[in-house]
């Protein structure tokens, strides 16, 4: 069964931005953002950092409570959420890591090296096993689970071109039932963010916080281009029920203050792209007026955890955010 993000973790997987990645134009800004995230994560758990040979990153872990481990490998970019291994567990047995195919979100970007990174993790003993599923394209950011066999996702992404055609929704469901142990599907058919390259990954829109709670992006401004789609998405979420038939507790997150690139194209800023750690939640902020309201709402969704904002303005310039650059690695079963 697919493990939820709040399953006890032994570390977080990331990849270091350098001149050979898409961060070239704002490299120092991006590296500073990564440093902030890595050092914050190291207060709560280990970091497993993919980097190139002879890359000096040891300073990132000075005086840290947890350890920084480095994995030398070649890679195209740094979106660990989408190329990283996906963890499953059957009946309390050993965790199995699945290596699904990653093709740059439907062949939009070069991803040949990224598609091989999980093999490097196996060779470096970051994961103890790896089950090859690369004939099926599946990004970690496209799926959410309650840990009880429920999958939350978007039809726009899972049925997007250049992923798994000619498979239709029924065939995709059958495959995910078998490979991820899914027994219930919650499909969002509406909702999007302008500037998103992923074809509406669920982790930009709506997220499980626990088995009964979903945090989601809400848009209440009729003048905003997202208004109709996100209002429709909100209605879909209200129709969903838990495995026991109860309505979900829905925690609305504010629509982030609009951000634009140099040619005035809107960037996909979202507060839903948060990362759940063992004792804390890291959430992206953008240095805008909506940040504090988002933090307040996130505390409602995670009353037992520290909520820590990290400025991710640099990340949305490459059309992603905090959750997109991280992937949790669960603790081994006792």
How would you explain this protein's 3D organization?
This protein has nine helices and 16 strands. The protein is an alpha/beta fold and 334 residues long. It has a single domain (9-330), classed as L-arginine/glycine Amidinotransferase, Chain A, CATH 3.75.10.10. The strands form five sheets. A four-stranded mixed beta sheet has the order 3-2-1-16. A three-stranded mixed beta sheet has the order 4-5-6, with no helix packed on it.
Entry keywords:
334 residues, alpha/beta, L-arginine/glycine Amidinotransferase, Chain A, 4-stranded mixed beta sheet, 3-stranded mixed beta sheet, 9 helices, 24% strand, globular
Secondary structure: elements and pairs:
Layout (H helix, E strand, L loop, with lengths): L8 E7 L11 H15 L4 E6 L16 E5 L7 H4 L2 E3 L7 E6 L2 H4 L9 H7 L7 E7 L6 E2 L4 E5 H4 L10 H12 L3 E5 L17 E5 L2 E6 L8 H13 L9 E6 L20 E2 L3 E6 L5 H11 L4 E6 L1 H4 L10 E4 L4
Parallel strand pairs: 1-2, 2-3, 5-6, 8-9, 11-12, 14-15
Antiparallel strand pairs: 1-16, 4-5, 7-8, 10-11, 13-14
Question: In a nutshell, what does this entry contain?
Answer:
The protein is an alpha/beta fold and 334 residues long. Helices cover 22% and strands 24% of the residues.
């Amino acid at each position: 069964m697919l493990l939820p993000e709040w399953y006890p973790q032994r570390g977080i997987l990331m990849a270091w931005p350098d001149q050979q990645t898409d961060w070239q134009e704002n490299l120092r800004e991006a590296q500073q953002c990564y440093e902030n995230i890595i050092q914050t994560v190291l207060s709560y758990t280990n970091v497993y950092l993919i980097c190139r040979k002879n890359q000096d990153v040891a300073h990132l872990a000075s005086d840290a409570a947890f350890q920084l481990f480095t994995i030398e490998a070649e890679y195209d970019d740094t979106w660990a959420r989408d190329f990283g291994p996906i963890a499953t567990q059957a009946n309390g047995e050993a965790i199995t890591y699945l290596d699904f195919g990653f093709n740059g979100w439907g062949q939009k970007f070069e991803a040949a090296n990224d598609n091989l990174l999980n093999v490097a993790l196996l060779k470096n003993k970051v994961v103890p096993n790896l089950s090859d599923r690369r004939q099926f394209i599946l990004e970690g950011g496209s799926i959410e689970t309650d840990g009880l066999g429920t999958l939350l996702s978007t039809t726009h992404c899972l049925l997007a071109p250049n992923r798994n055609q000619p498979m239709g929704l029924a065939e995709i469901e059958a495959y995910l039932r078998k490979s991820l142990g899914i027994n219930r599907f919650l499909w969002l058919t509406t909702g999007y963010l302008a500037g998103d390259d992923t074809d509406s990954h669920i982790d930009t829109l709506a997220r499980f916080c626990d088995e009964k709670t979903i945090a989601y992006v809400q848009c209440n401004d009729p003048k905003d281009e997202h208004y109709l789609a996100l209002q429709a998405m909100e209605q879909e979420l209200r129709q969903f029920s838990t495995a026991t038939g109860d309505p979900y507790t829905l925690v609305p997150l504010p629509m982030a203050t609009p951000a634009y690139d140099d040619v005035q194209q809107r960037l996909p800023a979202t507060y839903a792209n948060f990362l759940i750690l063992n004792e804390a939640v890291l959430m992206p902020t953008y240095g805008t007026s909506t940040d504090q309201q988002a933090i307040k709402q996130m505390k409602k969704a995670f009353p037992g955890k520290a909520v820590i904002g990290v400025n991710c303005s640099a990340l949305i310039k490459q059309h992603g955010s905090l959750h997109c650059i991280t992937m949790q690695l669960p603790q081994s079963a006792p």
